[in-house]
Automatic annotation (TrEMBL):
Location of the region described as Disordered in the Swiss-Prot/TrEMBL record: 90-140
Protein name (database record): Uncharacterized protein
Protein's organism: Panicum hallii
Domain of life: Eukaryota
Compositional bias annotation for Basic and acidic residues: 123-134
Length: 325
């Protein structure tokens, strides 16, 4: 049958060709929508509002269809063709007509229209409608449906419990992962703090070493400067000492010569002339100067007057020179 329908459909030529499966799917959609609309149309027919034409009844049924099913009926042109078929007609008015025709008058009633009426009239059997088929199917599957529903509910409960278990496990894994990350961050922070403390200690140690080195360099520099100053002072002191010794010896020899040429030796209390030309006084001066010179040389060589040598030795040397002169 569907092959004949396919051939007739593809012979039109004005539309693209379809397959048998495509035509069957299209017919299933049309049949379902027309079946729903036929129930709304049957309700309008049973209400039989006064003064309403067939077109108005169709419009009223379409409005009820759109209001209840929330979408418009898009197959009115199919309905105009299919509404006269027995499958899409309401059986109740026909049953009412059949029962009305058989009441009260018996078999002697003569129907004037028998000659022109169709022989199939009331004997024609209407095929099972959509609602009847659904009711029969529902009744046949009622016992199976309850068992299937129980099994479905049990499976849904199992799936729900599995989902809850999976979510709990995922939450535990996330919590463990978060704790691991927190521990890693804390450990990394401790390592960074320890590293920074180590760097700070190293920096402080470098500063301390540099400071000690600077202090040592400063002390070494001051020590070298003191040694250089001491060397220069000692050199000058030795030169002055040699010069004073030579000068003293020259003066001493001259005074000895002058003292030997006089008749009487001068006395220490007899004034300036006696003082300068007295051999005894000159000898005492010589002893004092030699003693002072020995003491000064000893102190310099022992580094006992390093801080006071710069001026004391010069002052002592000048005093000795004045005394000798």
């Amino acid at each position: 049958m569907w092959l004949r329908i396919l051939q007739r459909y593809n012979l039109r030529g004005s539309y693209r060709e379809r397959s048998v499966r495509s035509l069957q799917s299209r017919w299933d959609i049309i049949k379902a929508e027309v079946g729903k609309f036929s129930s709304f149309y049957a309700d309008v027919i049973r209400e039989n509002p006064s003064g309403m034409l067939d077109a108005d009844k169709t419009t009223h049924a379409a409005a009820n269809f759109a209001g209840i099913l929330k979408h418009n009926f898009a197959y009115l042109h199919y309905w105009e063709i299919m509404k006269d078929e027995p499958k899409w007609q309401d059986p109740k008015p026909r049953a009412f007509a059949k029962s009305a025709g058989g009441d009260g008058f018996g078999e002697d009633t003569i129907n004037l229209g028998d000659d022109n009426s169709s022989p199939t009239g009331s004997a024609e059997k209407r095929p099972m409608g959509r609602d009847s088929a659904k009711a029969a199917k529902k009744k046949a599957n009622s016992s199976m449906g309850s068992a299937s529903f129980s099994e479905y509910a049990s499976r849904m409960q199992d799936l729900y419990l599995q989902k809850i278990s999976i979510l709990q496990e995922e939450s535990v894994r996330k919590n463990d992962r978060f704790q691991q990350l927190a521990f890693i961050d804390e450990k990394r922070f401790e390592e960074m703090r320890s590293h920074n403390q180590s760097l700070l200690l190293i920096k402080q140690e470098k500063i301390r070493i540099m400071r000690e080195k600077h202090d040592m360099d400063k002390e070494e520099k001051e020590k070298r400067e003191d040694e250089i100053s001491l060397g220069l002072i000692l050199m000058v002191a030795h030169q002055l000492s040699d010069y004073i010794t030579k000068l003293f010896r020259k003066k001493f020899s001259k005074r000895l010569q002058l003292g030997a040429g006089r008749d009487r030796a001068p006395e220490p209390w007899m004034g300036e002339e006696t003082f300068f030309f007295s051999a005894n006084v000159t000898l005492v001066e010589c002893v004092i100067l030699l003693f002072v010179e020995c003491v000064v040389r000893t102190l310099f060589e022992c580094n006992c007057i390093v801080n006071l040598c710069s001026w004391n030795y010069y002052l002592l040397t000048v005093i000795c020179s004045v005394i000798i002169s």
